[in-house]
Design brief:
The protein is α/β, with parallel strands linked by helices. It has 2 domains: 4-214, 3-Layer(aba) Sandwich (Rossmann fold); 221-501, Ribokinase (UDP-N-acetylmuramoyl-L-alanine:D-glutamate ligase), CATH 3.40.1190. The protein has 18 helices and 19 strands. The protein has helices at residues 9-20, 28-43, 59-73, 91-102, 135-145, 185-188, 192-196, 253-265, 297-301, 319-329, 340-347, 349-356, 368-375, 379-384, 386-397, 432-445, 450-470, 480-501, and strands spanning 4-7, 50-55, 77-81, 107-108, 119-123, 150-154, 176-180, 183-184, 198-202, 216-218, 242-247, 270-275, 293-296, 308-311, 335-337, 362-364, 400-403, 409-411, 417-419. The longest helix has 22 residues, at 480-501.
Length: 505
């Protein structure tokens, strides 16, 4: 699997130190500023003439000065504002200012707009911001966001915590972000994706650096190859596993049906539906998907030779739900815990201890609310550090964990973590988590490794929504049911492309 590293600020500083130690020392600021200018020209709206460059007190501000110099030399009308006077600047930044002045550039200290600009380049704060911004700076940032200019941020939008994706009081809302040396966590999860716009990455053509520890990765579409199990012509339904979905209490049968339908459409050989509602509320069949085999939850939880159990969608939290959950957790098979299964575990320490001691794979798929109940902390704390939350849950329960939401974070008990970059706001609708559970369950049922099944399921589900968006089926009104069929199409396309690329004619 190809891996695109993603770093916290500490690791980015380590990469910088490695390059600073080279002889001769590379001119990182000059390289970065030239790339910012080049990308600005590339993405500039037609007939762009005026550019405002906001230079901050740190080296981000130095990058901004270099970019301004190149843009002025390219005959744009460039103005620089430096709203925060630094106590001391690096030699590199001082040199950048000197070169700006040498071509007749002027710098203003104003903190308010005096005119409108076609483009604003945001070099106010970089990756080191870890404090809430004061009111006067927040007001200044708000004034930028109120303009109709195209906004290009350097490294991260000013006001964004590069480690967590949290907003530090206020934040520049960029159309584009030009980031260097390594992808930053905050650009890809939390509130970062809403503020970063299109991300342009450059390694500054400096080549490889020594390995950096304790970083994660972005999930790429090549992860789908990890779960593309070859199918023999002589295979049959029993060859591709048995998935048992348990949930669907009174009024919530739809949640379990979405999970079962997704499992079936993504390749599980047989899918059983164990519904916990009373007999009077359990349908005889799913007439929209009659291939699903419906039955009593307790009876299906006792089945042998099951390749995966998925429990939780629409499960409820009553005594019967607690009993069947305990039975599933004790099974020697891979399990996925979602929705109400997680809520029951949060309330029942005995079940939590059972999960911790499991030797077969466990996958947990909480949204931030469920994660907060499992860890006993607030949703705000969860969202303020989604990476650490996923790692804490993976360690606590000895499980593969995905914290759902924009930039879903996947973590393993061994400390590895990944951020997903697919998906769109159309997924903010009921039943999406149920479909995800079914997709992961399908991969597990067919023999995929639990870690690969989680990563591939999360990524594929987002790709399915992106396909719907591309086909004008969203974001408004996109439904969980639609992502099931879309997932099947995307996955089979990946499978067929993989077969074609590996076949010599």
């Amino acid at each position: 699997m190809q891996k695109v590293p993603v770093y916290h600020t500490e690791q980015i500083r380590q990469i910088e130190d490695q390059f600073f130690a080279l002889k001769p020392k590379p001119l990182l600021m000059e390289l970065a500023g030239k790339i910012i200018a080049d990308i600005t020209v590339k993405v500039a709206p037609e007939h762009t003439q005026s550019i405002l460059v906001i230079a901050g007190p740190g080296n981000n501000g130095g990058d901004a000065y270099v970019a301004a110099r190149h843009l002025k030399s390219a005959n744009f009308r460039v103005s620089i504002i430096e709203p925060i006077k630094p106590h001391q600047s690096s030699p590199e930044k001082e040199d950048a200012i000197k070169k700006w002045k040498a071509i007749g550039g002027l710098t203003k200290g104003a903190t308010k707009y005096e005119e409108s600009f076609d483009i604003v380049i945001d070099g106010l704060f970089g990756i080191g911001l870890n404090r809430t911004l004061p009111a006067e700076i927040s007001e200044y940032i708000q004034s930028i966001n109120e303009q109709e200019s195209t906004v290009i941020s350097i490294d991260v939008p000013s006001g964004l915590n590069a480690n967590t994706g949290a907003i530090m009081g206020s934040c520049i809302k960029a159309n584009h972000t030009v980031t260097f040396l390594g992808h930053k966590v905050g650009l890809h999860t939390g509130q970062g994706p809403d503020y970063s716009g299109n991300i342009h990455f450059s390694d500054l053509s400096l080549g490889n650096h020594a390995p950096i520890e304790n970083h994660g990765y972005l999930i790429g579409s090549d992860v789908l190859r990890e779960v593309l199990v070859p199918r023999d012509k002589n295979s049959h339904k029993g060859t591709h596993g048995q998935l048992v979905v348990i949930g669907g209490s009174k009024g919530m049968i739809g949640a379990a049906l979405l999970t079962g339908r997704a499992g079936l459409r993504l390749g599980a050989g047989r899918v059983f539906m164990g519904l916990v509602g009373s007999d009077s509320h359990v349908p005889a069949a799913d007439w929209a998907q009659p291939e699903l085999m419906l039955g009593d939850a307790m009876e299906l939880a006792a089945l042998e030779k099951v390749t995966c159990f998925a429990i939780g969608p629409g499960l409820g939290t009553n005594d019967r739900a607690f009993e069947v959950l305990g039975q599933v957790i004790a099974k020697p098979a891979p399990i996925i815990l979602d929705a109400d299964a997680l809520n029951i575990v949060a309330k029942q320490p005995s079940l939590a201890r059972q999960i911790e001691k499991r030797t077969d794979p466990t996958i947990m798929t909480p949204h931030p609310g469920e994660a907060s109940r499992l860890l006993g902390i607030s949703i705000g704390e969860i969202q303020a550090n989604r990476i650490q939350t996923a790692l804490d849950l993976a360690s606590k329960f000895n499980a593969q964990v995905v914290i759902k939401g924009v930039g879903s974070v996947c973590a393993s008990p061994d400390g590895k973590w990944f951020i997903n970059t697919t998906g769109n706001p159309g997924m903010a609708s009921a039943g999406m988590g149920d479909v995800l559970t079914g997709i992961i369950g399908a991969f597990l049922s067919q023999g995929a490794d639990a870690h690969a099944a989680m990563l591939a399921g999360v990524h594929l589900h987002g790709l399915s929504a992106d396909k719907l968006l591309h086909d004008n089926c969203g974001p408004i009104g996109m439904t969980a049911s639609e992502t099931i069929e879309s997932s099947r199409i995307v996955f089979n396309r990946a499978r067929n492309e993989n077969i074609t690329s590996s076949t010599h004619i």
